[in-house]
């Protein structure tokens, strides 16, 4: 796209957010030289190393150069977008992965459209599969820090949605059972659970964590559900994977901190990165 000033303002209520996503996809295609991407990944806290194991990086660009994207606001997220060529097995043609190294969180106050813009852009680049990852608190005492858990369903406690107007979307099988089976073919020990999103940015209280458990939740965090809803609306097949970086408040007697999240992610990084890279190759 030659004239970025012509891109509609994503924050203008009169703007169709899908127009901005298409403009972003066009910019990515021109900047990377890759006309179409097959799979997209959003790499949350602890997951950044997976990009290096996927394949050959064709191009990398700052996310702020792409229409509609914001600068990374959280330590542990990388503010770049990468196009990675994944070699095809058994003579198959290579595929391309679009790796979003940062996400906009709802608590940043930039609006829901910004939160899900990366997902809509991924769909506009041609991707049919989306892998959403995050770092989260665990409610199951058996899942110590560093444990990856597949997301089987979610509970959205943000009191908002990325869908606007009378847009009715079935979320019954939002998190793909097929993709979870692919993940378990790589690591049969993977458990699965229900992810509960709070707005943040404060950590949940012990009472809120207990409430999440009574509602059927197994994991608590501050991302993912709105992106997953937008992905379903855009026609993407979704795989969600959480990295338990700490026990939820009240599960253990340790205070919560973002430093703990980063340390757990760093310690688990090699294992979860190799896991995710192999899952994406098989997908």
Automatic annotation (TrEMBL):
GO terms for biological process: nucleoside metabolic process. It comes from Cellulomonas fimi (strain ATCC 484 / DSM 20113 / JCM 1341 / CCUG 24087 / LMG 16345 / NBRC 15513 / NCIMB 8980 / NCTC 7547 / NRS-133). Phosphate binds at residues 45, 77, 103-105, 135, 223. The keyword Transmembrane helix does not apply. The purine nucleoside phosphorylases catalyze the phosphorolytic breakdown of the N-glycosidic bond in the beta-(deoxy)ribonucleoside molecules, with the formation of the corresponding free purine bases and pentose-1-phosphate. Cleaves guanosine, inosine, 2'-deoxyguanosine and 2'-deoxyinosine. Its EC number is 2.4.2.1. SUPFAM superfamilies: Purine and uridine phosphorylases (SSF53167). GO terms for cellular component: cytoplasm. A purine D-ribonucleoside binds at residues 204, 246. Belongs to the PNP/MTAP phosphorylase family. This is Purine nucleoside phosphorylase. PANTHER family: METHYLTHIOADENOSINE/PURINE NUCLEOSIDE PHOSPHORYLASE, PURINE NUCLEOSIDE PHOSPHORYLASE-RELATED. GO terms for molecular function: purine-nucleoside phosphorylase activity. Residues 39-281 form the Nucleoside phosphorylase domain.
């Amino acid at each position: 796209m030659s004239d970025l000033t012509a891109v509609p303002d994503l924050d203008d209520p009169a703007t169709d957010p899908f127009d901005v996503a298409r403009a972003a996809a066009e910019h990515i295609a021109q900047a990377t030289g890759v006309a179409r991407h097959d799979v997209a990944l959003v790499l949350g806290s602890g997951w950044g190393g997976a990009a290096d194991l996927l394949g050959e990086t064709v191009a990398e660009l700052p996310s702020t150069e792409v229409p509609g994207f914001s600068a990374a606001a959280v330590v542990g997220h990388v503010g770049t977008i990468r196009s990675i060529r994944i070699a095809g097995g058994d003579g198959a043609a290579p595929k391309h992965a679009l790796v979003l190294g940062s996400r906009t969180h709802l608590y940043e106050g930039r609006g829901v459209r910004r939160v899900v813009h990366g997902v809509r852009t991924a769909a506009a680049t041609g991707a049919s599969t989306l892998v959403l990852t995050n770092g989260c608190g665990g409610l199951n005492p058996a899942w110590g820090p560093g444990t990856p858990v597949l997301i089987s369903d979610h509970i959205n406690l943000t009191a908002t949605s990325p869908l606007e107007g009378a847009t009715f979307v079935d979320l019954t099988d939002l998190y793909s059972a097929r993709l979870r089976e692919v993940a378990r073919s790589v690591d049969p020990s993977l458990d699965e659970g229900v992810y509960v999103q709070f707005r943040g940015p404060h950590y949940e209280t012990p009472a809120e964590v207990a409430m999440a458990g009574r509602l059927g939740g197994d994991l608590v965090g501050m991302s993912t559900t709105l992106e997953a809803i937008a992905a379903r609306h855009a026609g993407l097949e979704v795989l969600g994977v959480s990295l338990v970086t700490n026990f939820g408040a009240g599960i253990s007697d340790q205070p919560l901190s973002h430093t703990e999240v980063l340390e757990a992610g760093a310690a688990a990084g090699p294992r979860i990165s190799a896991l995710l890279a192999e899952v994406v190759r098989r997908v």
